Amino acid sequence: MEDLAVLLKQRGIRSTRLRLKVLQILVASKNAFSTTEMNTSLGGSEDRSTIYRILSGFYAEGIIERIVGVDGGLRYVYLPQSLSIQPSFRCSKCGSVSCLSPLPSSYLEEIQRHHLDNAVLVFSGTCSDCLRKRV
Ligand SMILES: [Zn+2]
Question: What is the pLDDT of residue 16?
Fold first, then answer.
């Protein structure tokens, strides 16, 4: 928790109870969160526009990444290595978005010789949770 407060301070963001809770949830999870999903993780009683402002503020400071889903909705995810290109997986049954392992560095070196306009790597299908539940 203290480390997270330091991380925010380094980016010039004041630590508040809610900012720290949001960041803690993002850091502890491999999943990407929409504003609604973040609110649910926080217990559902927070102000949605405040959560939106916190997430977009973290994104503006480069702390978290943003993923545009196939539904056009925005989701936010914490990536420890900010330069890695990380494919994501979207479940077409429950709508969850999770991050797959980052691409190997040899691949990134190769791709960095080109100028990238777009690096959206999204796999879709049925996630392991839904497969287990057999819905
Ligand atoms: Zn699913």
Answer: 95
The token duo for 58 is 């973290």
Q: Rounded to whole angstroms, how far apart are CA atoms 78 and 11? A: 15
User: 2 Cβ partners below 8 Å, 6+ apart?
Assistant: none
Whether the predicted pLDDT of 109 surpasses 80: no
CA angle 93, 26, 3 (to 5 degrees): 165
Residue 99 labeled ligand binder: no
The whole-angstrom distance between residue 93's C-alpha and the CA centroid of its chain comes to 19
CB 89 within 8 A of CB 32: no
Take residue 24 and report the two structure tokens written for it: 């803690």
CA of 58 to the centre of ligand 1 (A): 27
Report the separation in Å between the CA atom of 82 and the middle of ligand 1, taken as the mean of its atom positions: 26
Domain boundaries, the chain: 2-133
When pLDDT is averaged across residues 49-63 and rounded to a whole number, the result is: 93
Reported CATH class of domain 2-133: mainly alpha
Tens of pLDDT, residues 1-51: 568 998 899 889 999 999 999 999 998 887 889 999 999 999 999 999 999
